[in-house]
Specification:
Strand order of the largest sheet: 1-7-2-3-6
Subcellular location: Cell membrane
Largest sheet: 5 strands, mixed
Radius of gyration: 32 Å
Structural class: alpha+beta
Low-confidence stretches: none
Family: Belongs to the ABC-4 integral membrane protein family.
Protein name: Peptide ABC transporter permease transmembrane protein
Main location: membrane
Number of domains: 3
Membrane topology: Multi-pass membrane protein
Helix content: over 70%
Amino acid sequence: MLVKLSLSGIKSRFKDYLVLFSGLVMAAAIFYMFEALATNRSFIKANATFSVAPFVFQFGSVLLAIITLVYILYANSFLLSMRKHDYGLFMMLGAKAGKLGQLIFLETLVIGTLSVIVGLLAGWGLTAVVGHLLIQRLDATAAHFNALYWPAILITVIFFIVLFILMALINQRTLRKTPVLKLLKSTAQPTHVAVKPIRTAVKMIGGFVSLAIGYFVMHQIGVFQLAGIGIALVTIVLGTYLIFSSLFTWLLNRLQRREKFTSRGLNNFILAQLNFRIADYNRMLSMVALLFALALGAITTGMGFQKNIQTYTESAPYDVVLHNPTAETKKAAQKIDTKRSSQYTFKVKKQQVYFVREQFDQAPLYVQKNWRKDQIIPKYQLMSGKEMTMAEAPSWQVSLRDLLLPRDFQKDIKLVDQAEFDQLSGQSHTVKAIVSTDFFANLDAIKKTTQLDQKQNHSPANYAIGSTKYDFYQIMNSVLSGLEFMGFFLGIAFLAMLASCLMFKILSGAASDRVRYRMLDKIGAQQRLLRQAIAKEIGVLFILPGIMGIIHVLFGLQMFTVTKLLPEAYHDLWLPFLIFLVLYGLYYVLTVKLYQKIVLTKEP
């Protein structure tokens, strides 16, 4: 019986559930994709170029989990509010609170289970597409990659089912503590809240001050460090809510007093609708604005990181370093358009590595300069053998050690004259350092040459210990490509969540608005004007959090420019903004169409 009641309850509110269901499905799909890419150990082990990206996707999973928790808490309040009146009726008819608690538990779990199942199916397909795109981007091998990864499925199922069980328990507790009369009145219309000038002014000033503090802290994040993130989070959340509960309410009232504006078309009706609802919408619009900022910020920074790969690649002075190159390796190296090359001879005796000092006079070594605060990547200078013997040992020793194979990294470096070098016993080794005219133009030849050198010297394909531009390119390509994909799909997940919350809140009031629009229709209002009125009313509810979210992002990017994580964070900003606003616009159009269908469809 309980199962029948729960299924009938879901069926009767299917359209409302479907809106929120879409956000849950998107969250589950992207969560599974992140976990599948982050936990597939066989695939990661077979691809050194992918070894850093899993940490990025695991971080993305944590961020998504936190936002999903907030979203489910908020969505859960919607789901419960839709059924409160029905539960009140059941209790009036003699149903026990315990039985209703079981009913709520079943309904919540049914919705959760369905969203996870559909999300996993969508995530399977998404992982297959994104995984192969990422493999191509990182030039990795598809060996051991499987879009259907059971450990990731298990993690996703456990996470979401635990969340929904938690929500079901919260719903049970809420129902038991809510009086029957309050449950029956849950569908009552919001009351109009009169604007109190002094109170509104205080809220407005408090909102602007809170936002100013948050924006200032983000600009000075280097000074405030981790504490700054906490301060900015609190002040921006508080400021956003205060602005929505004061400034926009004040603006609506000011517009209502402008007869020239209200006399046009149905503007007066639209303002009355908004003014009537704005107090009930403040909290929801604030949350949507914050999710909007997170979504747009994730897409913007993700694309921004990928654009900086060339900057970070310059962290090393040499494009390729060859160790005792064979004829095959030398032939591959000849295909590199070389700007400068240097070859050095050395011998290894126990824990000592000896180089010939005169060779550095003929071909000076790139040695890293002292680090400055405003630097993003290290700077290098050419240093001769004579200068090296006079300079502090650690600087040039580190640069020389970077040219050696991993097995010699920990050994001491010494410069000796040619005569002394000849007296040393042991085999002579050579190391050749190459600088190309254009790294990215010669990338294919550089890659082939590096791989041949690694194969010849049985060097592990673990570039994290390397020191050439190609090594850094692989490291940064793995990290930044992972950040790009993570940012984009986090943005999509956040967008789905914020849009579903906004759509549901708007559409939940459509049934009561049907009477008002039919009255306008009966007194002669044109269908065209009614449709325009709906588009404008919903447009305001989409635009307000959008504007606030964009402002948050524009100030938030300061954190990345100040910390040098994204030196050109504002460059080509139009592209991620355009992508996001197009997707956001599609949700707006869908909401308008659904709303129009509900309130303007005439009964037979």
